[in-house]
Amino acid sequence: MKQGQVRIIGGEWRGRKLKVPDIADLRPTPDRVRETLFNWLAPVIQGASCLDLFTGSGVLGFEALSRGAAHVVMVDHSTAVIDLLQQEAIMLKTSCADIYCAKIPGGLKTTARPFDIVFLDPPYRQNILLPCCFYLEENAFLAENAYIYLEAKEGLTESDLPINWKIIKNKIAGQVAYHLVKRIKK
Q1: Domain with 164 in it: what CATH number?
Q2: Domain, as residue range, for 46
Q3: Cα torsion for 32, 37, 42, 45, to the nearest 10°?
Q4: Is the pTM of this model over 0.90?
């Protein structure tokens, strides 16, 4: 398995490099997109409970921990990805990441605390982004005022999303459309 690298760009582990396996459809979120995203999340990241669904390189989850999140659950369908991320967590000396392999979204384990922040960046060709949004909403995975990061091939509108989700920020960088959504109490 050929590996690349991606670096954590802020916080406690700033500059640390993570290995990225050469797996089809695995595209780490670019540095400039992550910088913008974590600037958006800066007021709410401290102490947050996060979910990094389709974690891939793990860079969003580890970046969140580096910047003060209390806990991150990282889930992917690839055992190779999960094995590598577990090694990365050991290298970073963190016990604040639960990393497991599951078919997404149905295999997602219930948690004692709903997620404050969710990173949702599935492989584009699987067309699973919107079904995952509705699954998270309908199955009580989200905190009352959760923030959800959505990365897609093209822009989304609020009419695509659960009725109580509001797009509060969005941008396009190259071939990536990314959005920060806030869940509004029903």
Answers
A1: 3.40.50.150
A2: 3-183
A3: -130
A4: yes
